[in-house]
Write a structure and sequence with these properties.
With 141 residues, the chain is mainly alpha-helical. It is 80% helix and 3% strand. It has a domain at 45-140. The protein has helices at 24-80, 84-134, 136-140; strands spanning 10-11, 17-18. The chain has a two-stranded antiparallel sheet.
Length: 141
């Protein structure tokens, strides 16, 4: 049996439908609140996801740029090095720089993902709370 604060209809023994307890204005107001809440939640999720994708894309661009810089450094090293040892030493410097910058990009990516996880958790909690606050059927249950 469905039990709700906004819709109380009964059928008596003679099959007559009693609609005296229906409050249409309250029902419309509640439906508008629920609709607005759903729209706001979807808009917030869209904004959060867009922000995360933009930040992650920036990290991908940073990695691609780093790859191009590394290749350029290697070509410059090969064209200017005098002897085998100079190439080995130069390559060690390039790899060290590459490793350091890659770790920085990885840390940034981890921070972005961690922040996004926290934002998504907070968003879900807010949506659940708002749904419970705005839905009289949840309150009645």
């Amino acid at each position: 049996m469905l039990h709700s604060n906004i819709l109380r209809c009964t059928i008596n023994l003679f099959g007559e439908f009693d609609m005296t307890n229906i409050n249409i204005e309250e029902m419309n107001e509640n439906m508008n609140k629920i609709g607005q809440s759903a729209y706001s939640a979807a808009k917030a999720l869209y904004t959060m996801n867009t922000n995360a994708v933009e930040q992650l894309f920036d990290q991908q661009i940073a990695m691609a740029t780093l790859g191009m810089e590394t290749m350029t450094s290697q070509i410059q090293l090969l064209s200017s090095a005098k002897g085998y040892q100079a190439i080995v030493d130069g390559q060690a410097d390039i790899v060290s720089d590459l490793s350091s910058k890659t770790q920085g990009i990885a840390r940034n990516t981890f921070d972005i993902l961690n922040e996004t996880k926290e934002d998504a958790t907070a968003w879900a909690e807010d949506v659940a709370k708002e749904a419970a606050d705005n839905n009289p059927m949840v309150k009645a249950a």
